[in-house]
Structures are given as structure tokens and as C-alpha cells.
């Protein structure tokens, strides 16, 4: 069973996270298949840009707690999106949680429908948004991240746009994206590649400097007693023991 849908229209390759049974959570299998699809896009001269979207009412619920990817695999996927010499555009019409926000931050452009919601839920299960910080910290308002990282609060699409997580939000996300995709189709492939390299240099410096430390942190936290309690509580639909 494929977990990534693929379609193409006028040079735009659309990759759809298609695992609605677990709300498109980042399982080892989904991360591996998305990595392969992006590799294909990189090699295909017929692809001008890639749109990353989803089926169901959730773009991505974060890591699959039953079959999580290795932190190294997630780092590789996020870096692959940043390094791809073609623009990657996120299209969101639903909810985004935890690791899914790392996917948004890695994309060059991200747009969402107004009803979409967002939350960094890691602290609520006893871990931290470690690996996904690689693209998030250089691109998102630090004061806002401090609030949403530390509290796990849910926030809406206009706020996500205000803090730099999204490029734009609107009632009709396809109307928002139409002029953006038209602009990408009109741009020269070499011009797009070189311009993207300019825009992502600072993000890639963060990967070079911090990826190993944040990968190790993620592995330690997910193996901790608090994380085991937090993940068990989540799966059992109850509060973890530390909730006051």
C-alpha cells in the first residue's frame, strides 16, 4: 500500500501524505516513501516545483508513536526538502501537530486554509521539538516559538502566518496558491535553484552545526521514563501523571 500519492500538472509535482488511518503521522514507512518521492522529483527535469499536501483532515499528526522513524531519518528528510534544488510548497487544509510543523518549516513556501490548526505537542508527552527545530528556529519568530514550544497550546492559521510558520493563510488555500504556482512556472529552473540556495543557506548552517546534538537529544528523550508515560497516556487517552 502506497503512503504517498503523486500527481503532476504543468510541471508541478504534488506529493500527498496518504495515511489517514493514523492522521498522516510520520511512521518509518511514510518517511522512507516520502524521501524516495522527493529523490525522484530532484532527478526529474520535468518537475519545476513540488507541492506537499495531504488526504484527510490532518496534514500530519507528528511522529507515529507505534512506528516512529529513527531521528536520523527525519533529519535526512527535513534536510532533503531544504536542499532540494526546486521549490517545495506546503498546502495544508487541516490540522498540523508536532513533527508535521517541521515539514512546514522545511518547505520554501507554506499556505493553509483558515480553519487549519497547529500545535507543538511534544512537551505534553515528555519530549521536546528537538529535530524539527533545525528548520523552525531560523525561520520562525523566537518569542512566539517560546510560548508555543513551552505550552503546547493550539493556535490558528492567521497566527501561524504572523509568526512565520506559514507564508499565507486564506479561506480557499488553492486561491492563495494559484499566483504562487503560476510564478514558479514562469521562473527559469536555474534561477529557481540558485535563488533557493541563497534563501536556505542560513537554515543549512543550522543543520550543519546542530543536527548531531539534536538527534542525540531526541533519542535520549524518547527513551526516557517520562516519555514512556507520556506516550502511554496519549495512546490510552488519559492525562499523564504529571498533570496538575
UniProtKB/TrEMBL annotation:
GO molecular function terms noted in the UniProt entry: catalytic activity
Family: Belongs to the enoyl-CoA hydratase/isomerase family.
Designated name of the protein: Enoyl-CoA hydratase family protein
Native organism: Streptomyces guryensis
Amino acid at each position: 500500500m502506497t503512503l504517498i500519492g503523486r500527481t503532476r500538472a504543468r510541471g508541478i509535482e504534488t506529493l500527498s501524505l496518504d495515511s489517514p488511518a493514523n492522521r498522516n503521522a510520520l511512521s518509518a514507512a511514510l518517511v522512507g516513501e516520502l524521501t524516495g518521492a522527493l529523490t525522484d522529483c530532484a532527478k526529474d527535469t520535468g518537475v519545476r516545483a513540488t507541492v506537499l499536501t495531504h488526504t484527510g483532515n490532518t496534514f500530519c499528526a507528528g511522529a507515529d508513536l507505534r512506528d516512529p522513524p529513527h531521528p536520523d531519518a527525519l533529519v535526512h528528510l527535513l534536510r532533503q526538502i531544504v536542499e532540494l534544488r526546486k521549490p517545495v510548497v506546503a498546502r495544508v487544509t487541516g490540522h498540523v501537530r508536532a513533527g508535521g510543523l517541521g515539514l512546514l518549516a522545511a518547505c520554501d513556501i507554506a499556505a493553509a486554509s483558515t480553519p487549519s490548526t497547529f500545535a507543538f505537542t511534544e512537551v505534553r508527552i515528555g519530549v521536546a521539538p528537538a529535530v524539527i527545530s533545525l528548520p523552525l528556529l531560523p525561520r520562525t519568530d523566537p518569542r512566539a516559538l517560546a510560548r508555543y514550544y513551552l505550552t503546547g497550546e493550539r493556535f490558528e492559521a492567521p497566527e501561524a502566518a504572523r509568526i512565520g510558520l506559514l507564508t499565507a493563510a486564506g479561506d480557499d488555500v488553492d486561491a492563495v496558491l494559484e499566483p504562487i504556482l503560476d510564478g514558479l512556472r514562469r521562473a527559469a529552473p536555474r534561477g529557481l535553484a540558485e535563488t533557493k540556495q541563497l534563501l536556505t543557506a542560513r537554515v543549512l548552517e543550522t543543520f550543519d552545526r546542530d543536527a548531531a546534538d539534536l538527534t542525540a537529544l531526541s533519542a535520549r528523550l524518547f527513551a526516557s521514563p517520562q516519555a514512556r508515560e507520556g506516550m502511554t497516556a496519549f495512546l490510552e487517552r488519559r492525562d499523564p501523571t504529571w498533570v496538575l
